Give the backbone structure.
Amino acid sequence: MRSRATRYVYGALALRPGGSGVQTYIRELLNELPEQLPGADLNAVVQEDAVGELPAAVTPSTRRVADGAVRAVLGALPVGSADVVHGLDVDLPLVTRAFKVATVHDLSVIDMPSASSRFRALGEQRLVRHTLRRADLLLAVSQFTADRIKSVSGRDAVVTELAPAAWARPPKEEEVEAVRAKYSLPDKFVMQVGTVEPRKNVQLVADAAEKVGIPCLLAGAGSTGPDKPTSAVGLGYVDLEDLPALYAAATVTAYASRYEGYGLPPVEAMACGGAVVASAVGALPDVVGDGATLLKSERVSDWADAIRPLVFDDAARDALTTAAVAAASRMSWRQTAEKTAQAYRGAGV
């Protein structure tokens, strides 16, 4: 008699239409897992407007659109019968008899609580610590995050490294020219893509660009708001399909972040042929390898010195972008899914 298919339920409430970062992880992993778990019954709990982000092999279970504390509450609700429940962004149902797996992207709420309001930081710390205790199996997106999990909870985590999103690839020259025209880009500029917030240290990038003598452009949430550096030009949100050409058009893409559990934006910039200068913090030294210039300093003069040769020496920039594309090409979501499935099997599920 044939046994019943193993039923996996994925907590994917963090998935948003077209989103990046954690959303990229959820989207790409769920696209690859069906091949690694043949015959399994795969399901995902998603917000109702994110159903279209799931592959056909994954059955959706919908929740209403929500964020913050409300989304956390929705993530704690029962998910019905399951053999394995895997929270893809720390969230686990409060009551379940299933084997519990949780992916931890970083411990920034513990390591850098000042990056959020006191109320939010306390709530997220409780959620993370609760999951670190309850999960039967912990996955970490980098060795750095695994080491932080060990330090905070005493528990081991299986490392399942990430990869650039499917859209991240070197663009054609005509695509670069079209994006230059669309956004009225200067000939040379330093760019940072991402949310303008204290942890991302955008002011350092703007100051370094000003010292070198070229414009600084910002793209993403807050890039046109009151918190952006006065010397920077904000592009606001840019269309996802424009990002490869934008990374390639930028003379330098800089990430002065003070904390990274993995660092997908620098990796995606590398995959698009961008010349990346980034902070040597968290997981970034292991993740980017020789595909980016890394700095331990937060001195403006040091960042300017790192950016300057990439602006004025074409050979230096070409050498870095060639190494960047090669480094990024060694990462794949197939490998992420393979390591995830191996972790399940290693835990006996």
Notes: The chain has a mean pLDDT of 93. The radius of gyration is 21 Å. The CA atoms of residues 47 and 66 lie 8 Å apart. The first strand starts at residue 7 and ends at 11.
